[in-house]
Amino acid sequence: MRFVPAKRVSLIDDLMKDSFGGFNYLPAMKTNIIEKDGGYRLEIELPGFNKEEIKVELQQGYLIVKAERNEEKQEADDQGNVIRRERSSGSCSRRFYIGDSYSDEDIIAKYENGILELSLRALSLEEKENKKVIAIE
């Protein structure tokens, strides 16, 4: 068995890791979908976002969730000379097909502790079958 010494991390390696391994990469939104009493609840993980940075839309049968933020960090020494300044931005989005039967009034959104919870009410049988039929001449 051979002993391999631990890799030394330089300041440059540390800065690169901080820049590329941090906020610039946003993983996909992990989502739980729960069916209850004919309705649905989506629990979407969005840690670190503020409520104002999250947007939920309903377009052509798709429920679209977007999260976007811009951040600027600045560190200075005692005299106020800038030692390090970083800017980062990132966004992520996810779409769920829910059909044309839902309207924005059928969806309730709540964001707390990094979890966006979307509740879709149960649709009646009439609402589910309410499809537009085109008459053939």
Account of the protein in words:
This protein has 137 residues and is mostly beta strands. It has a single domain (28-126), classed as Immunoglobulin-like, CATH 2.60.40. The chain is 11% helix and 45% strand. The protein contains two helices and seven strands, in the order H-E-E-E-E-E-E-E-H. A four-stranded antiparallel sheet has the order 1-2-7-6, with no helix packed on it. The radius of gyration is 23 Å and the shape is elongated.
In brief, what are we looking at here?
By secondary structure, this protein is mostly beta strands.
List keywords for this structure.
137 residues; mainly beta; 4-stranded antiparallel sheet; 11% helix; 7 strands; 3-stranded antiparallel sheet; Immunoglobulin-like
SSE class: mainly beta
* Biggest pleated sheet: 4 strands, antiparallel
Level-2 CATH architecture = Sandwich
Q: Which CATH C-level class is it?
A: Mainly Beta
Provide the spatial order of strands within the biggest beta sheet: 1-2-7-6
Number of helical segments with 4 or more residues: 2
CATH T-level topology: Immunoglobulin-like
Spell the H/E element sequence: HEEEEEEEH
Distance between the termini: 83 Å
